[in-house]
Predict the 3D structure of the following.
Amino acid sequence: MDLTTFLQFFINGIVLGAIYVLLAIGLSIIFGMIGIVNLTHGILYMLGAYATVTLAPYIGFFPNLIISPLLVALLGMAVEAAFLRQIYKGDPALGLLFTFGLAMFLEQVVRAAWGPQGIPFQIPDVLRGAIAAGPVIYSKYRYFIGLCSILVITGLWLFLEKTPYGMIIRAGSHDPDMVRVLGISLKPVFTAVFGLGVALAAVSGVLASPLAGVEPAMGTNTGTFAFVVVVIGGLGSFWGSVIAGLMVGEVESFCIFFWPPMADASKFALMIAILLLRPRGLLGRRWERFE
Amino acid sequence: MEKKSISRRRFIKTASAAAAAAGTAQIFAPAILKAQQQPIKIGHLVPLTGFLSPMGDFASKAGKLAIEEINAAGGVLGRKLETIVDDETNPGVGVQKATKMIQQDKVDFLLGTVSSAVALAVMDVAERYQKIFFNTGSNSDQIRGEKCNYYTFCTEASNTQYVKAIGRYLLKNKNYKTFYILTSDYAFGHDLTRVTRRLLNELGGKEIGHDLVPTGTADYSSFLLKVRNAKPEVIFCNVAGSDQTTFLKQYTEFGLKIDVAGGVTDTVLMWNTGKDTAQGVWTVIWWGDLNNEYTKRFVTTYRQKYGQPPENQAWGDYTSIKVLAEAIKMAGTTDSKKVAEALEKVKFDGGKGRELYYRTYDHQLMQPMYVVDIKKTGNKDQWDIFNVVGEVPNKDESLEVIASTKEENTCNMKRG
């Protein structure tokens, strides 16, 4: 493997990882705040893609980066307010079962509404083709994905760390009771956080829509991989998800170079290795609330 | 359950024989009438989920259309046909569902499957229960080779038929010397690449790279980087189902200037890719623009009913049910053994411009194949996506020239 090849696969790993990061952070934020493992995440990623292919003929591709996640977030918030809210007090397994059922339901709704076949969708004209940076020739659109991910991740981090809303979210995820004592109602916060988390899933769906086949099964595997990333990074940890997402991307990219049939399995092998060495994940903390 | 059903059927047989002999049909008439009114049941397994699901929808809709047409024309042996449709999922579940269909639903025949892995599992069930299984969408040579059995009939072409068809085209029109093969990592892909390597030998081509790709792979970027570094003249794409769509989209994204060819494609996969992004030369089993009566009628009625033209998987399931109905009429019974005998004799027009038949040796349908490339300009609509660039074999040749020879794919079936 020469240097150029190495660089190509390395860059590719980062971009692959970027999509995993976006998915995983959303999942992680929801779990950190609400304590629900959201099994609809892969489906909401798919909904992001479907919203994009549906709206693109009218508004073009780029506005979808904002509009589709907003629509999916609205749906997520409605679900939170109508159903999820009822089960926070109950057994954590209830949340798991509910989101599992909802995922299956939504997949069938998509099948019924858009049909079981895929929908053709292309990369926007300006981003087609490849560009050469020295010896490294790489797809324009993938650079765009990388850029978008960096923007979203930075923006999200600033929001969580530097704004009063972010502070409430962080505080609420550590000690909800104390936040309530301070006179802050967590109900709308929970709804907003759920919306934010699923919006992130939808953003990755929008970015993936020109690359993967947009069809009802597209979310199934992706949702699973997002879990793997969250588990590796540590549930609820922001930077844990970022590092883990990039790691998984790199492992997958290089695994395809050396041993392609193991490309899918490599992610799980990494997860198992990390869990054996550090059961709470790379940057996972202990969560007193959940222990 | 099983035993009870046999004894009931025996009872009816005995009863009808007795009735005829005694000439007192009236007494038994209600029983006979009831037996006749019971529908002939077909267990229809189609992929409704997963990476092969784009084809499943066409298979089930086409099956429904065939049944409706047959029933509207009075059914078969005075009985209606009925299908029980279920998701084939994977080999394990496929076997469970096929078994349940036979034991609980009392189906008379099994039909369907797109996954070769599922077909290989279901054909064992068919043999065990001595029920005909019509393979309408699975290509692996093994199904008509080492695993073949008397009760399995293949309307879907074998990988050998597909690859020999495109092989002829490449031999005549292209002079590729270096190949990079991408293979779906399951029964179908492995088998297809085995057959492709045979073709490479004939073409004098060299395999300069080969990767096994997990099914349902969402990202081909690393594979494409490898292919680009290897600089082959052609990528031979042996991935299946929606993976083909994903591959082609990302191939275009990376702006590769390498030709694409593939042993097998399904029309719906190219529809999903779109004409601007779709690439390459491929083999298809049937295509809706073929110029003959059967095809035109099928395309028109399907389109009227479902608002979209049928693709090749629809053709497979539709045609199989029509042929099955024909064979039941010929046999005069739904007994699988007798129907199988009829199927070995039946010759029919399947919309491919020639008389088609199931070869007695391995129960493979002998049929021409179509080499197609992508129609980029002058398309009538979004579904007008192929140019047929070759029909193989030629009109004056035997259909068997593209089928596997006994040496290539040995089938030792136990008859009956």
Notes: Chain B touches chain A through 41 residues (CB under 8 Å).
